[in-house]
Amino acid sequence: SDSINLAVIGGDGIGPEVVAEGLKVLQAVSGAKVSTTDYDLGARRWHRTGETLPDTVLEELRGHDAILLGAIGDPSVPSGVLERQLLLRIRFELYHYINLRPARLFPGVSTPLDVAKVAPNGIDFVVVREGTEGPYTGNGGALRVGTPHELATEVSVNTRFGAERAVRDAFARAQARERKHLTLIHKHNVLSYAGHLWRRTVEEVGQEFPEVSTDYAHVDAATIYLVQDPSRFDVIVTDNLFGDIVTDLAAAITGGIGLAASGNINPDRTTPSMFEPVHGSAPDIAGQSKADPTATILSVAMLLAHLGRHDEARRVEHAVSADLASRGDKVRSTTQVGDAIAAGVI
Ligand code: IPM
Ligand code: MN
């Protein structure tokens, strides 16, 4: 169709600044009529009204084609309140069961790795992080809090349904890529029950994808591979918490958190998917036009691809790639980076 009806949640800290640049690039590239609705959610709203995500707002979000989110979280709000009641609530309520996080080292981007030595074939993989289960469900509790006998549990919830839909999505993505390789990351030597569920699911769903090769890495070993042999990865599938951790490391080896994009996706399309940079709200540099909007702009490319606008998505990626290649050590403001990329999409 020729319109994009977007819900925008700038959020906290640098969120609104990077989102503005993402929208700038979206307007520049898209032949569609882009209409946006801004939602004032995050720390400011919470301080003012005590609200995190009113039900009425959640319902309104459902009416959009997609959601663009900047960042959520502020040191003035108790840890976990906005994360759980706002960000995770959206992911859960809108069935964002695929948290898709590409890790690609663009030409000219510096990385702490000695690429010539450890990644001669480049770095280009994608993490399919399960988005609605694992230890993120809030299924836990505490007893005798504040006493020497305090006890806390944090239960990791893994359903066959949840693992299977994530694994099938990961296989399909691997099938569509050149190398057709899928790695399951888990920790089945200790987390035997969930590990067994995930391994069997990969084995069984794998029957549907005979062209896709598979292997397995424990999450601790995977952190070594990511630093010493990242070229081995093509598609990674993993649970919500392992996925959270390995995608920060994946960002660190591909130019840093300023470049890492993500999509919280409902592949069934019964609800809008939500696109956001992997980074947080960075309150220390908020309001100074210092944040790199590239991660948000690459998230916009993912948004366009999700809406089937593949040509526009590619043009955004090319513009980012060209900008990264010529970036060098120049220090540019948030808006300068956005302007340069927006100028490059034509
Ligand atoms: C991320 C973030 C979130 C997560 C937090 C803010 C809840 O770290 O998107 O990776 O853990 O998923
Ligand atoms: Mn994270």
TrEMBL record:
<keyword id="KW-0560">Oxidoreductase</keyword>
<feature type="site" description="Important for catalysis">
    <location>
        <position position="136"/>
    </location>
</feature>
<feature type="binding site">
    <location>
        <position position="129"/>
    </location>
    <ligand>
        <name>substrate</name>
    </ligand>
</feature>
<keyword id="KW-0028">Amino-acid biosynthesis</keyword>
<comment type="similarity">
    <text>Belongs to the isocitrate and isopropylmalate dehydrogenases family. LeuB type 2 subfamily.</text>
</comment>
<dbReference type="InterPro" id="IPR023698">
    <property type="entry name" value="LeuB_actb"/>
</dbReference>
<dbReference type="InterPro" id="IPR024084">
    <property type="entry name" value="IsoPropMal-DH-like_dom"/>
</dbReference>
<feature type="binding site">
    <location>
        <position position="244"/>
    </location>
    <ligand>
        <name>Mg(2+)</name>
    </ligand>
</feature>
<feature type="binding site">
    <location>
        <begin position="280"/>
        <end position="292"/>
    </location>
    <ligand>
        <name>NAD(+)</name>
    </ligand>
</feature>
<feature type="site" description="Important for catalysis">
    <location>
        <position position="187"/>
    </location>
</feature>
<protein>
    <recommendedName>
        <fullName>3-isopropylmalate dehydrogenase</fullName>
        <ecNumber>1.1.1.85</ecNumber>
    </recommendedName>
</protein>
<feature type="binding site">
    <location>
        <position position="101"/>
    </location>
    <ligand>
        <name>substrate</name>
    </ligand>
</feature>
<keyword id="KW-0963">Cytoplasm</keyword>
<dbReference type="InterPro" id="IPR019818">
    <property type="entry name" value="IsoCit/isopropylmalate_DH_CS"/>
</dbReference>
<feature type="binding site">
    <location>
        <position position="220"/>
    </location>
    <ligand>
        <name>substrate</name>
    </ligand>
</feature>
<feature type="binding site">
    <location>
        <position position="91"/>
    </location>
    <ligand>
        <name>substrate</name>
    </ligand>
</feature>
<keyword id="KW-0479">Metal-binding</keyword>
<keyword id="KW-0432">Leucine biosynthesis</keyword>
<dbReference type="GO" id="GO:0000287">
    <property type="term" value="F:magnesium ion binding"/>
</dbReference>
<feature type="domain" description="Isopropylmalate dehydrogenase-like">
    <location>
        <begin position="5"/>
        <end position="341"/>
    </location>
</feature>
<dbReference type="GO" id="GO:0051287">
    <property type="term" value="F:NAD binding"/>
</dbReference>
<keyword id="KW-0100">Branched-chain amino acid biosynthesis</keyword>
<dbReference type="GO" id="GO:0009098">
    <property type="term" value="P:L-leucine biosynthetic process"/>
</dbReference>
<keyword id="KW-0460">Magnesium</keyword>
<dbReference type="Pfam" id="PF00180">
    <property type="entry name" value="Iso_dh"/>
</dbReference>
<comment type="function">
    <text>Catalyzes the oxidation of 3-carboxy-2-hydroxy-4-methylpentanoate (3-isopropylmalate) to 3-carboxy-4-methyl-2-oxopentanoate. The product decarboxylates to 4-methyl-2 oxopentanoate.</text>
</comment>
<comment type="pathway">
    <text>Amino-acid biosynthesis; L-leucine biosynthesis; L-leucine from 3-methyl-2-oxobutanoate: step 3/4.</text>
</comment>
<dbReference type="GO" id="GO:0005737">
    <property type="term" value="C:cytoplasm"/>
</dbReference>
<feature type="binding site">
    <location>
        <position position="220"/>
    </location>
    <ligand>
        <name>Mg(2+)</name>
    </ligand>
</feature>
<keyword id="KW-0464">Manganese</keyword>
<comment type="subunit">
    <text>Homodimer.</text>
</comment>
<feature type="binding site">
    <location>
        <position position="248"/>
    </location>
    <ligand>
        <name>Mg(2+)</name>
    </ligand>
</feature>
<dbReference type="InterPro" id="IPR050501">
    <property type="entry name" value="ICDH/IPMDH"/>
</dbReference>
<dbReference type="GO" id="GO:0003862">
    <property type="term" value="F:3-isopropylmalate dehydrogenase activity"/>
</dbReference>
<keyword id="KW-0520">NAD</keyword>
